[in-house]
Design brief:
Rossmann fold; Helicase, Ruva Protein, domain 3; three-stranded mixed beta sheet; binds adenosine-5'-triphosphate
Amino acid sequence: MATSAYRLLFRQSMKPGVVRTGSWRWASSPSFSTSVQRDTTTETELPVVTTSALEPDEGGEDALTPAKVVEMLDRYIVGQREAKRAVAVALRNRWRRHRIPEGLREEIVPKNILMIGPTGCGKTEIARRLAKIAYAPFVKVEATKFTEVGFHGRDVDQIIRDLVDNAISLQRQKVRARVVKEVEKAVENRIVNMVVGQQRPAEGDANVEAPPENKEEVRKLYCEGALDNRKIQMDVPDGRSRPSVEIIGGGSGFAVNELIHRMEKVFKAQKFERQEMTIGEAKPLLIEIEMEKYLNSDQISKDAIQLAESDGIVFIDEIDKIVTNHETRHGADASSEGVQRDLLPIIEGSIVSTKYGNVNTDHILFICSGAFHSCKPSDMLAELQGRLPIRVELKGLTREDLYRILTEPETNMIKQQQLLMKTEDIDLVFTSEAIHELAAVAAEVNRSVDNIGARRLHTVLERVVEDISFHAPERAGDTYTVDKERVRQSVGDLLHKTDLSRFVL
Ligand SMILES: Nc1ncnc2c1ncn2[C@@H]1O[C@H](COP(=O)(O)OP(=O)(O)OP(=O)(O)O)[C@@H](O)[C@H]1O
């Protein structure tokens, strides 16, 4: 096709549930006018996002049997079998509920869980991992947050709003993963067209249509990254929205940017900031801008709300801190108990309004946890007890458990330290005795100072590797072996000085 100019067709659809593709298409035109036609023949439907959020790491939703879930949790969390089994069954019950005919399905409420166990023994970690395995929206709150001075009577509905925010992020991640290839292709086409346009002869030349092989050549160069250093100018409206692109250099005089710039202004009255950058720099920016069209749709909000309603997990920590022991009257004060009443509606099931729409909390899974040192679960409001029918006890961590936590989880603390040092080209080696000693020290400080469970391992380990970590950049290529002696040197003294270890470890 030979003609003297190009016409921009901006494909855009205003239909609900349809994404504005915003892609620019070149077409021949008898004149070099800047007429713009809206071509609604091509529309990109938003990818349908399934309302069932379960996209587990492995094997699909059906494969998430309780045994499989426990096995997956075992990769990250040591021991606490009872709690793992309880959450695994809760997850499976959701799967079962989804398979019950509508109507009956609504009658089945989740069996919420009360985890009882000392601090730092893995309660939060189990719930958080469960959410990850199930690809479920998750939010953690401290019950005491609602009793803090200045926060008293804080809106507990915020928990559900936060859950929906999390569901929105998950939906966006899903959509992003699903459309990334399509978006990259659109950006590739866009840049290739620009480069081809630049190579075309000046206005008035009869032979204006770039030969296909030329386009393919440009595409090949683009894919190889050979165009990455080529300068373009992008007009970026207020930093992040749709850009227009101009190829500079080449001297064709073809005012691509000018055209796009005007089109942009026709469709969107936005302020543009012109920035010069290379194609390599522009690529990720254009991808983000293109992606935004998929990520800001009503469909995402609808799907996110459904996801939060059917698969959301709310973890309420320190629930015991809002409970008063009825015999001794120790524990929370009367006003804190009011927080139990505040929490009841969302746990029992109610409608919470969020900026994305109303959320029904009937089927959200609530996992509450607490140490219950100075009160008992039976001290909670009867209605709350009734809504937390599954009780599981988690054990305090022994020295042996601490050793296993250091070594067994997939990305255990020892491995993490080694990976960090490897980035500085340092080989960090721990002897088995050293790891046993670390666990022993942590257990001892937990016993003598304050039992903070596995969290103590972080502080002890950091102290042991502190010197290596500090000097690592100057000692690339070295190997450090942490043996029992080194652990003793680093923390041994502190062990015998309780006052000091109280602050340091
Ligand atoms: N059994 C365990 N296995 C592996 N890691 C653990 C275990 N218990 C605790 N940890 C680690 O210790 C840290 C604290 O654990 P977690 O947040 O689950 O404590 P918690 O029981 O919820 O305590 P709290 O009630 O004070 O929040 C986390 O980094 C977690 O990975």
